[in-house]
Amino acid sequence: MITLHHLRIGRSIFTVWLLEELAVEYELKVYHRDPKTMRALDDLKQVHPLGKSPVIEDDGLIVSESGAITSYLLEKFDPDHRLSPPRSDLRQWATFTRWLHYPEGSVFTPLLIRMLLLRSGEPHTFLQGFSDKEVALHMNHIADQLADNEFILGDKFSAADIGISYMVSMAKRLGVSSDYPTLEAYLTRNQGRPAWLAAVERAVE
Q1: N or C: which end of the chain has fewer CB within 10 A?
Q2: The pTM is what?
Q3: So where are the chain's domains?
């Protein structure tokens, strides 16, 4: 059975969502943050030396990094390609892979900088300017890709939508999504899925 090491208030809720979409039986081990620093407590370092989440265990194999975890779970539990295209269609698979890894690649850093600036409360003209321009660049890029489609790759939900939803939800928390109504509608649509609601019920509430 898959064991997911889940840190409350963080990105691993999106791995819970993927497991629910895959209808995989899994054990959830919940970890908490230091209420003052909001950093993970040291108990998570007993699982992985970085003390980060998500981390999964499967028959003694430890897998970290959200993108790697997603690829592993799809390879093992999605033989019918409900949430990803087959590798035999190289063009579709390459497009899917690009959007699968995009959230924690290019787009995450400017959003992280914005979050840290808000937390610090200290002015930093250079970082603020960089973050504002990059966030706008990426929000427009996602909105252009989505266009009038229901999901990021067209009319079918895929695992890439989980990561993109993570980025849009982060942008919404940081107050930068209101200029992109199609992205907010996209997030609302995805977070109405039964698998997301089940993930929240199990891992948040």
Answers
A1: C
A2: 0.92
A3: 2-83+195-203, 90-193
- 191 vs 36, higher pLDDT: 191
And the tokens for 137?
Answer: 């660049």
Dihedral of alpha carbons 49, 53, 57, 63, sign: negative
Q: Which of 103, 97, 72 is nearest to 4 (CA)?
A: 72
Of 54, 43, 50, nearest to 17 by C-alpha is 54
Cα(15)–Cα(199) distance, rounded to whole angstroms?
9
Distance, in Å, from the CA atom of 105 to the CA atom of 112, rounded to the nearest integer, reads 12
Question: What fold, for 90-193?
Answer: Glutathione S-transferase Yfyf (Class Pi); Chain A, domain 2 (1.20.1050)
CA distance 36 to 198: 29
Where do the H-state alpha helices sit in 23-102? 66-77, 90-101
- In the block, residue with structure tokens 């959007």: 99
Average pLDDT over residues 117-125: 84
In degrees, rounded to 5, the angle at the alpha carbon of residue 188 between the alpha carbons of residues 117 and 71 is 75
26-31 and 2-7 strand pairing: parallel
Three-class DSSP category at 64: strand
